[in-house]
């Protein structure tokens, strides 16, 4: 048995309940550019291990409901009139089931970067929980299609806005996620990345100060750089190259943390900081240069899987639903020091590539397609790439009661099915 098969374990196909087809009164693909992924999910994760995952609640929300938001082709057909009103020729839109909250418990929440990969999942969860949500995004890496299923909902508002410019809103909480997070994106315009890291955080903190909102900064494990401590605790100050090709992102997040705690000390802003480790899942951009998306797309296309370096570098990967659980738990807690949010399962990059290749083979065989014959090839190592990265999540367990519920393998099955569906739709 290969190392990848040992990680994945045995797989016994199980049937999943059918997902109804969209009706003629649902989403207009030309307007919203959302492909139907339902069949792909039905043909995708179907092992006994994955069947257990479908029963697992995601923050009190059914996983089937969460899945439907990134796999559904349903949504309102909205036609905008010249007076800016919207009419729905197919009748009133049907939205995902939203909890009805007591007005005293209902919050007005701002999510910057809300149309992005993680931001859109966070918006989904907050909406399902019954809150009023405002998402702002400049669509540099995000897409309005990630949130199109909420367009027209009375609890939801989408604003095109770049956080480097101030914005005036009345909110109770601010989740500040806006910042390009993949090397392809943040290295394409390093000055803009640094401006977003500083001015974007400055503007969001200024808003939090004015309206007395609680503020959560999504920082990153990159603040630890190429760590000399392993695993990394929140008390570790890091080992960062401040002039390297990754510095625009690493130092941007470090200064964002410093700015957040300066506002807390000087102006009494109620601050939370999450240090996020590698995260993957549906709605990732498949051309963002990250390990997970690269490996899955290459295997699905039957291309060789490219590893930069000898593959001995290690990473820890968490599924996006776990991260959203942690972000909400941190926001609702009274804890104000930085908290690591990540999955401590550690893989070498080579081991991870083998695992993904095996999962893609299994998925394609279940779909009746030829298994990929991709092989792993090695390219020169990327400059300044950290050699080891693994979170110490003791603090998250103790102060938030949070721990990852998804293994990397469970999450990868879902993600492989998602990417396969997207690729089938072109």
Automatic annotation (TrEMBL):
EC class of the enzyme, as a word: lyase
Keyword presence, Transmembrane helix: yes
Gene3D superfamilies: NAD(P)-binding Rossmann-like Domain
UniProt cross-references to SUPFAM superfamilies, sorted A to Z: NAD(P)-binding Rossmann-fold domains (SSF51735)
UniProt pathway annotation: Nucleotide-sugar biosynthesis; UDP-alpha-D-xylose biosynthesis; UDP-alpha-D-xylose from UDP-alpha-D-glucuronate: step 1/1
PANTHER family: UDP-GLUCURONIC ACID DECARBOXYLASE 1, UDP-GLUCURONIC ACID DECARBOXYLASE-RELATED
EC number: 4.1.1.35
Reaction catalyzed: UDP-alpha-D-glucuronate + H(+) = UDP-alpha-D-xylose + CO2
Keywords: Cytoplasm, Decarboxylase, Golgi apparatus, Lyase, Membrane, NAD, Signal-anchor, Transmembrane, Transmembrane helix
Transmembrane in keyword set: yes
Main subcellular localisation: cytoplasm
Positions with biased composition (Polar residues): 1-15
Source organism: Dactylellina haptotyla (strain CBS 200.50) (Nematode-trapping fungus)
Region (Disordered): 1-30
GO molecular function terms attached to this record: NAD+ binding; UDP-glucuronate decarboxylase activity
CDD domains according to UniProt: UGD_SDR_e
InterPro entries found in the cross-reference section: NAD(P)-bd_dom (IPR016040), NAD(P)-bd_dom_sf (IPR036291), UXS-like (IPR044516)
Family under the similarity heading: Belongs to the NAD(P)-dependent epimerase/dehydratase family. UDP-glucuronic acid decarboxylase subfamily.
Record's protein name: UDP-glucuronate decarboxylase
């Amino acid at each position: 048995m290969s190392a990848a098969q040992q990680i994945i374990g045995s797989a016994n196909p199980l049937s999943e309940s059918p997902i109804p087809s969209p009706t003629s009164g649902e989403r207009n693909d030309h307007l919203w550019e959302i492909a139907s992924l339902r069949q792909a999910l039905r043909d995708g994760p179907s092992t006994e291990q994955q069947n257990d995952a479908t029963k697992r609640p995601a923050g009190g929300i059914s996983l089937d409901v969460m899945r439907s938001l990134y796999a559904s082709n349903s949504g309102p057909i909205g036609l905008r009139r010249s007076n800016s009103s919207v009419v729905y020729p197919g009748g009133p839109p049907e939205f995902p089931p939203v909890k009805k909250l007591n007005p005293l418990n209902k919050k007005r929440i701002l999510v910057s970067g809300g149309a992005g990969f993680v931001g859109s999942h966070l918006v989904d969860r907050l909406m399902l929980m019954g809150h009023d949500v405002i998402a702002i995004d400049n669509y540099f890496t995000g897409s309005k299609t990630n949130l199109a299923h909420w367009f027209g909902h009375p609890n939801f508002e989408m604003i095109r806005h770049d956080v480097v410019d101030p914005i005036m809103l009345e909110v109770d909480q601010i989740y500040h996620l806006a910042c390009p997070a993949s090397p392809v994106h943040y290295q394409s315009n390093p000055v803009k990345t640094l401006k977003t890291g500083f001015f974007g955080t400055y503007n969001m903190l200024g808003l939090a100060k004015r309206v007395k909102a609680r503020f959560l900064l999504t920082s990153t494990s990159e603040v630890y750089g190429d760590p000399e401590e392993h695993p990394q605790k929140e008390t570790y100050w890091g080992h960062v190259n401040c002039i390297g090709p990754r510095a625009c992102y690493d130092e941007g997040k470090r200064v964002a943390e410093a700015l957040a705690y300066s506002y807390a000390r000087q102006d009494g802003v109620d601050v939370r900081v999450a240090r996020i480790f590698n995260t993957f899942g549906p709605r990732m951009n498949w051309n963002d240069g990250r390990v997970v998306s690269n490996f899955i797309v290459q295997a699905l296309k039957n291309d060789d899987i490219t590893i930069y370096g000898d593959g001995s570098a290690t990473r820890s990967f968490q599924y996006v639903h776990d991260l959203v659980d942690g972000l909400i738990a941190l926001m609702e807690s009274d804890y104000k020091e930085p908290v690591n949010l990540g999955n401590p399962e550690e893989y070498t990059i080579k081991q991870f590539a083998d695992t993904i290749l095996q999962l893609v083979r299994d998925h394609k065989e279940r779909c009746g397609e030829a298994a990929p014959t991709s092989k792993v090839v090695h390219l020169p190592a990327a400059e300044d790439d950290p050699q080891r990265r693994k979170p110490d999540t003791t603090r998250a367990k103790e102060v938030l009661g949070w721990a990852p519920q998804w293994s990397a393998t469970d999450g990868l099955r879902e993600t492989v099915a998602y990417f396969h569906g997207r690729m089938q739709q072109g």
